[in-house]
Each structure stands twice: as structure tokens, then as C-alpha cells.
């Protein structure tokens, strides 16, 4: 044995111990924290221009309520407890000033428009009950109110058109429990094991078959988590058209494929053994198969995104600034998220982009399912905007904004963290090229975009609403659908209307249609609509005339009238259709913004339907009309409960007026057909259920504006691409080695329920 070997081994061991000690010590050192993100949202007292679009503050809402209580000369009940025969305030929202007033203020140095509120009131305690809309102002201290109902709608609004208040649904629940169910105690006890707590109801709309009806099917489910997919087979039709609740009555009953006159007849048939009973296995409180509780334990944490040098956007009151973008945002009680005064590089490209409506039309062999046509704006896409969960609904480090509303109450309600804003690295290049011919280089730009998001939970469905701003000047409007599928009790020929999801659960076929208003102002207010597309032409090769070449050529057409610019849902639409400005770019082309729709919609309800005009916006994938103050929305919250005599019929907007060199609005409809399937249990995923539109510069600039982004990467084979001054990515170990300042997790979504 070599006598020096033990010394060599000892020295080697000491070196290894030293290295390990250094590694452990280095791990123990905490990386520096990233730059603070706490000062992103600024609430300022100064009246910036964007505040002309700002939602009402809680203080302003309270002032409006107090003013109405003291100046209408009638008592106003709290809508949360109101009877149908009461007067009450249904909602208070911002009255957006006219576009002409706003542009004089924003662009012409004119006076700031008066700040006003729009209040919707139900007058049930009158000789002629009606719905009235008042404009109240000026805020913050109102001194006047104007009845604008006739001006807006051409006449008074009948009381039966009013959206159903939460208090009315509570009263209907009480009617079912105390009156209807009391007539069938044996059936309910033995078949449903009814104990007053173990059933849940889902309402259907519209309420009947003709104007004046207020007759609703109530579908019964087991009252468990995810009850929407636990039908029990019983459905009850209630006539609640009378303002005297003692006059409410059951009109029909449906159980397991059979119809009955009322609950008394159902009870009698059951006691006499003349009913085919299909008893549903009682589900545990967590819903069993419908539970969203994970079936696997937590493991390695999913990837997180953070901003090593702090956010690159700012939020000041209702205005967002991001690189070359700026816009104002707001939340309408009925239509949800909306944007105003959208500018890129300081120039306005759109005056308004807003959600208008979300429609679902269902099929089933059960009465509730087959008669359902949800117009979610009448329930309130803004009212049902839900609190957002950090790290799931939005990135953990996003900026979260509270919203407020007065809806079915006398007091403002706060929706904590119901809107989020964040910059997102989409994990792919916005553009890139690797050159291995002639010169050797790489050039690219990360696709990092700003997202503003809200999520509305309307009954069983959750709609994720996004507006996305890209560095090349493009804007995307997108909606993703998730939540629970609606279902019917599986019986008879049910599989004609969907797929079986569980033992007694039929996932019912339905359509989704989403309508947007896009008021583009490209290079100014006056625009024209132009279509570019392609056609193949046959020609002889000039250098070889005996040979034929088929070559694509550009086709061009100016669409002069609204009729030409109204494209039916399943019709062919020009692949390049754009708003053209009266100015040209450096290369002599009209500057434009192109509309590109992403949709795989089902079929629209037949136009012969008695209720089709109420949803006639869904006839069109795109309709471009002249902008008019008297046509602010494509639909109305009153259409849901009286679609047979619609308060607003979009079809009337399309009346062949000239649209050349006019202020134009694009009404965009995107949608998808949903045939629920077993993978919709426990609930529906967003993957594949995403539709919307893009607004893309089309010769608007002289070159791609993203070339001026600070995020660009470029290096050649002759450069040292490991040097920070050449390639900023080489600096990431230094610039992005901080620890993100993640705030503590909080959630206020279960408070004040």
C-alpha cells in the first residue's frame, strides 16, 4: 500500500466537505426581493380626462338613491325585500354622455360633460304599473331627474317586462315550499325524501309564450355541490303574473316524462300507483361526481409568472397605460366589462369596445330545458361579476380592482377584486426569424401583452371576459366559457338532445352566442368599410406562353350600405374586412383596422320564431351600421321577459343606410355549439370553448410598430451574444434572480352572501 494514499484521501475528503459547505451556505443566502408592486393602482382626486367614463363611486350611488327617495313623491321599498306590488330601485349605473359631448371635451377643449346616473325603477304600486328610467344629475350632488323612458323606447315600458328580482325568486321559492309542495306530501317524502332543505331550483326563461306572460318552469335538483347536474325528474310550472302573490298558482307539473295538471293530481296518481317512479340515489353534500374538490393531493407547484423589475403598466383611477396603449375601463351592471377611448401611440383607434349580450338556447325533452333561452344581460353580466382568486383566475401578481354597484338594493355593494389587469408573457414569439442563408443572425420579440379581465358567474356558467392589447397594435376580445353544464332528467328519447353524463343526468345540447359592440374610429370618426379578398385568375406565362399559370389576385370592394355590410351567421364573409380612414400611410394605402372573428357558432333560432326579433343580432356574424345615440346597445334587459314584443330589435338597425365616410359601429357575434359530454363532469373546461375577435392594423402604420418595442432581441454570428449590451436575455441571471413579492392570499368572495 502506498504510504501517501491515506493523506491523499484525507485531503480529497476535506475538499469535498469544503465544496458542500459552500453550496449549503450559498443556498442559505436569500435572493434580493423584486421591486415593489404595491403602488401600481393610484386613486387620485384629480379629474383626468378618462374620468368622464368612470363608474359611479359608492358615494355617488348613495347620493342618487337618497335623491330618488326624497324627490319622486312615492315610497321606495328596498328591492332586496320588495313585493311585486311595491315601488323600488332596480339599479343605478353611469349614464355615459353622448359621444359628441365627450369628443368635444377630449379633443376640442370643450366643457366636461355633466356627470349623471341612469336609474331603473319598478313602479308596482301604481294604477298602471310600469318600468321607468331616470337620468339623475349632476353628480356628486344631484338636483334634477329626467324621465327618459319614452325618449329611449318610444313609449312606456310595461311592467311585465321587468327582469325578475332576487326577492321575487325568494317569494317563488316560498310559494313552492308552502303552497305547491304542501299538495303532494307523500310523493315528495317517499320519492324525493324531501325535508325542505334538500332540493334546489333552477329557473327557466322566457316566462311563457306571449307578451304579458309571467309563467316559469322551475326544475328541481338535489341541493348538493354542483346541483346543476343532479336533476330529480320533477319540474313545476308556476304562474306568477299577478302582483298579488296570493293569486300565484301551479299551472302544470312534469315528472319522469309525464305531465300532470297540478301537484294534487301528481299526488293522487302516486298514491294510486299510477306513476312510473325513477328514484334517484341520494348524493352526499359534496355532490360526489360533481364535486370540484381535487382527486389528487398537491404536488410540485405549477409555474408562476412574476415581474422582476415591477409592473410595466400603470392603473390610475379608471385608466390603464401600457407601453404605447392607453384606455379607460368600466363595468356596466347589465353588460359587464367595457372599454372607452382606446389609443395606440397617442391616437384613438376605438371609442368603445363593450360586451352586449350572452345568449344560450337549449334543447331537451323536458319542459324546462326545451323552453330555455337565457339572455344573460337581463340577469346582469356586471352584477354577477365574481371575486377573482389569485393564481387561478388571474396571475397571482396581477393588479386587482374592486367594483361597485347598486343593484336590487338601496345600498352600494362592493365586489372585491372583481377585475384584474396584468401583463402576460404568452410563451411564444410575437415575431422572429433565424437566418442561416447569406447573413447569419437571429431577431425576435417576445409576445408579451396586457390583459384586462373579469369573470361573470351567471347561474351555472362562468364567462371569462378578456380584452388583450398586443405590442403590434392589435386588440383581442375573447370570452372563455366554463362552469357547470345545465342538465335535464334523462328519460325516453332524451339522447336526441344530448349525452348521458351520469345515471339520470342528460347534458343538454345548447348554443352560445356572444355579441360585442366595437366603435372603431380609425384616423378619425369618419370611416368606410372595405373588403379585400382573393380570387384565382388564369394567365399565360409571359416567358412561356404555351403554359398556363393559376395565380391569386387581390379583390377589392367598398361596402356602401348597411345591407351590404350585414353578414349572416353561416354566410361567407370577406377574409379581410376593415374600417378605412380618410388618410393614407407612407405607401399610399388607406389606413385601416381589420376585423377578424374567431367563432364556431351553432345555428341561429329560425327567424319564423315568435321571439327571434328579440335576439336578431345573432342573425349576423358581423353587421356594420351607422353609429347613432339612439342605438346604444344591440339588445335590452327587457327583451328577456317579453321577447315577443322586443323593447330593442337589432334587425331594425340594419336598414340599408349609406355607410361611406360615416361614424360606424361593428356589431360582432361569436359563438359555439356545446354538446355536453362526459368530460364536462365535474364541470366544463375553457380549452376549446373560447371565441372572440381581433382588431388588427391593416396599412395603418408604415411598418410594424412593435419594432420599437424595448423587448426586441437581435444578434449576429459576429457578436458576443453573451454580453448584456448585445442581448438582454444574457442578463436574466442577474436581472431576474430576485424573489417576487407575492402578497398574502386573501379571498372575500364568501362575505355578505
Describe the 3D structure.
The radius of gyration is 30 Å and the shape is globular. With 753 residues, the protein is mainly β. Residues 19-28 have low confidence and may be disordered. The protein folds into three domains: 45-153, Nuclear Transport Factor 2, Chain: A (Roll); 166-290, Nuclear Transport Factor 2, Chain: A, CATH 3.10.450.40; 313-427 and 462-698, Beta-galactosidase, Chain A, domain 5. The chain has a 16-stranded antiparallel β-sheet that branches. Strands 1, 12, 13, 14, 15, 16, 17, 26, 29, 32 and 33 form an eleven-stranded mixed β-sheet that branches. The chain has a five-stranded antiparallel β-sheet with strand order 7-8-9-10-11, covered by helices on one side. Strand 3 (116-123) and strand 4 form a beta hairpin. It is built from ten helices and 35 strands.
Please sum up the structure shown.
With 753 residues, the chain is mainly β. The protein contains ten helices and 35 strands. The chain has three domains: 45-153, Nuclear Transport Factor 2, Chain: A (Roll), CATH 3.10.450; 166-290, Nuclear Transport Factor 2, Chain: A (Roll); 313-427 and 462-698, Copper amine oxidase, catalytic domain (Beta-galactosidase, Chain A, domain 5), CATH 2.70.98.20.
SSE blueprint:
Elements: H1 5-28, E1 41-42, H2 58-71, E2 87-95, H3 99-107, E3 116-123, E4 130-137, E5 144-147, H4 149-153, E6 157-158, H5 166-180, H6 185-191, E7 199-203, E8 215-222, E9 231-239, E10 249-255, E11 258-260, H7 263-271, E12 313-316, E13 319-322, E14 325-332, E15 336-344, E16 347-362, H8 367-370, E17 373-375, H9 376-379, E18 399-407, E19 413-437, E20 439-458, E21 461-469, E22 475-483, E23 487-489, E24 498-502, E25 505-508, E26 510-520, E27 528-541, E28 544-559, E29 566-568, E30 576-584, E31 590-598, E32 620-626, E33 664-674, E34 690-698, E35 712-716, H10 732-735
Parallel strand pairs: 1-12
Antiparallel strand pairs: 2-3, 2-18, 3-4, 4-5, 4-6, 7-8, 8-9, 9-10, 10-11, 12-13, 13-14, 14-15, 15-16, 16-17, 16-26, 18-19, 19-20, 20-21, 20-35, 21-22, 22-34, 23-25, 24-25, 26-33, 27-28, 27-30, 29-32, 30-31, 31-34, 32-33
Amino acid at each position: 500500500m502506498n504510504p501517501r494514499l491515506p493523506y491523499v484521501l484525507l485531503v480529497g475528503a476535506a475538499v469535498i466537505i469544503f465544496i458542500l459547505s459552500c453550496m449549503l451556505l450559498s443556498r442559505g443566502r436569500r435572493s434580493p426581493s423584486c421591486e415593489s408592486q404595491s403602488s401600481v393602482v393610484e386613486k387620485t382626486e384629480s379629474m383626468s380626462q378618462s374620468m368622464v367614463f368612470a363608474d359611479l363611486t359608492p358615494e355617488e350611488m348613495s347620493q342618487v338613491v337618497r335623491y330618488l327617495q326624497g324627490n319622486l313623491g312615492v315610497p321606495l321599498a328596498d328591492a332586496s325585500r320588495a313585493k311585486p306590488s311595491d315601488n323600488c330601485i332596480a339599479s343605478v349605473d353611469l349614464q355615459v354622455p353622448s359621444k359628441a359631448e365627450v369628443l368635444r371635451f377630449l379633443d376640442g377643449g370643450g366643457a366636461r360633460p355633466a356627470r349623471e346616473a341612469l336609474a331603473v325603477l319598478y313602479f308596482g304600486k301604481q294604477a298602471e304599473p310600469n318600468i321607468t328610467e331616470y337620468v339623475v344629475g349632476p353628480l356628486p350632488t344631484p338636483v334634477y331627474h329626467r324621465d327618459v323612458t319614452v325618449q329611449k323606447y318610444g313609449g312606456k315600458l310595461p311592467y311585465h317586462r321587468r327582469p325578475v328580482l332576487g326577492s321575487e325568486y325568494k317569494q317563488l321559492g316560498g310559494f313552492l315550499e308552502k303552497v305547491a309542495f304542501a299538495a303532494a306530501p307523500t310523493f315528495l317524502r317517499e320519492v324525493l325524501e324531501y325535508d325542505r332543505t334538500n332540493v334546489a331550483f333552477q329557473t327557466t326563461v322566457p316566462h311563457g309564450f306571449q307578451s304579458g306572460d309571467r309563467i316559469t318552469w322551475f326544475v328541481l335538483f338535489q341541493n348538493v355541490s354542483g346541483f346543476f347536474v343532479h336533476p330529480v325528474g320533477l319540474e313545476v310550472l308556476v304562474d306568477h303574473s299577478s302582483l298579488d302573490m296570493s293569486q300565484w298558482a301551479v299551472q302544470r307539473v312534469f315528472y319522469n316524462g309525464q305531465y300532470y295538471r297540478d301537484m294534487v293530481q301528481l299526488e293522487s296518481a302516486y298514491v294510486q300507483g299510477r306513476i312510473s317512479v325513477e328514484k334517484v340515489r341520494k348524493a352526499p353534500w359534496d355532490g360526489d361526481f360533481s364535486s370540484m374538490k381535487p382527486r389528487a393531493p398537491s404536488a410540485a407547484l405549477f409555474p408562476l409568472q412574476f415581474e422582476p423589475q415591477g409592473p410595466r403598466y400603470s392603473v390610475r383611477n379608471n385608466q390603464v397605460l401600457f407601453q404605447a396603449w392607453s384606455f379607460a375601463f368600466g363595468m356596466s351592471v347589465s353588460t359587464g366589462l367595457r372599454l372607452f377611448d382606446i389609443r395606440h401611440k397617442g391616437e384613438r383607434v376605438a371609442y368603445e369596445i363593450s360586451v352586449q349580450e350572452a345568449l344560450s338556447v337549449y334543447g331537451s325533452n323536458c319542459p324546462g330545458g326545451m323552453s330555455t333561452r337565457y339572455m344573460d344581460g337581463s340577469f346582469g353580466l356586471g352584477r354577477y361579476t365574481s371575486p377573482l382568486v389569485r393564481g387561478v383566475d388571474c396571475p397571482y401578481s396581477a393588479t386587482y380592482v374592486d367594483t361597485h354597484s347598486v343593484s336590487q338594493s338601496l345600498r352600494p355593494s362592493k365586489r372585491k377584486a372583481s377585475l384584474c389587469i396584468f401583463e402576460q408573457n404568452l410563451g411564444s414569439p410575437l415575431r422572429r426569424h433565424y437566418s442561416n442563408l447569406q447573413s447569419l443572425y437571429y431577431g425576435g420579440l417576445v409576445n408579451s401583452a396586457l390583459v384586462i379581465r373579469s369573470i361573470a358567474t351567471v347561474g351555472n356558467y362562468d364567462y371569462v371576459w378578456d380584452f388583450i392589447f398586443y405590442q403590434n397594435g392589435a386588440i383581442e376580445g375573447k370570452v372563455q366559457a366554463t362552469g357547470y353544464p345545465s342538465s335535464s332528467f334523462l328519460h325516453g328519447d332524451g339522447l336526441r338532445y344530448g349525452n348521458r353524463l351520469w345515471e339520470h343526468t342528460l347534458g343538454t345540447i345548447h348554443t352560445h352566442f356572444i355579441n360585442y359592440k366595437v366603435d372603431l374610429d380609425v384616423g378619425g370618426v369618419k370611416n368606410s368599410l372595405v373588403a379585400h379578398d382573393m380570387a384565382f385568375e388564369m394567365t399565360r406565362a409571359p416567358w412561356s406562353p404555351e403554359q398556363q399559370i393559376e395565380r391569386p389576385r387581390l379583390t377589392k370592394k367598398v361596402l356602401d350600405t348597411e345591407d351590404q355590410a350585414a353578414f349572416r351567421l353561416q354566410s361567407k364573409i370577406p377574409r379581410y374586412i376593415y374600417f378605412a380612414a380618410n388618410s393614407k400611410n407612407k405607401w399610399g394605402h388607406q389606413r385601416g383596422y381589420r376585423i377578424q372573428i374567431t367563432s364556431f357558432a351553432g345555428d341561429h333560432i329560425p327567424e319564423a320564431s315568435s321571439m327571434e326579433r328579440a335576439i336578431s343580432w345573432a342573425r349576423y356574424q358581423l353587421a356594420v351600421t351607422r353609429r347613432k345615440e339612439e342605438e346604444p346597445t344591440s339588445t335590452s334587459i327587457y327583451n328577456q321577459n317579453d321577447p315577443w314584443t322586443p323593447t330593442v330589435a337589432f334587425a331594425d338597425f340594419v336598414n340599408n343606410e349609406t355607410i361611406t365616410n360615416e361614424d360606424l359601429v361593428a356589431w360582432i357575434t361569436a359563438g359555439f355549439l356545446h354538446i355536453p359530454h362526459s368530460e364536462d363532469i365535474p364541470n366544463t373546461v375553457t380549452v376549446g370553448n373560447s371565441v372572440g375577435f381581433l382588431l388588427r392594423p391593416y396599412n395603418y402604420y408604415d411598418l410594424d410598430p412593435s419594432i420599437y418595442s424595448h423587448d426586441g432581441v437581435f444578434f449576429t454570428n459576429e457578436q458576443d451574444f453573451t454580453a448584456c449590451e448585445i442581448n438582454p436575455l444574457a442578463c436574466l441571471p442577474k436581472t431576474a434572480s430576485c424573489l417576487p413579492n407575492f402578497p398574502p392570499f386573501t379571498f372575500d368572495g364568501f362575505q355578505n352572501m
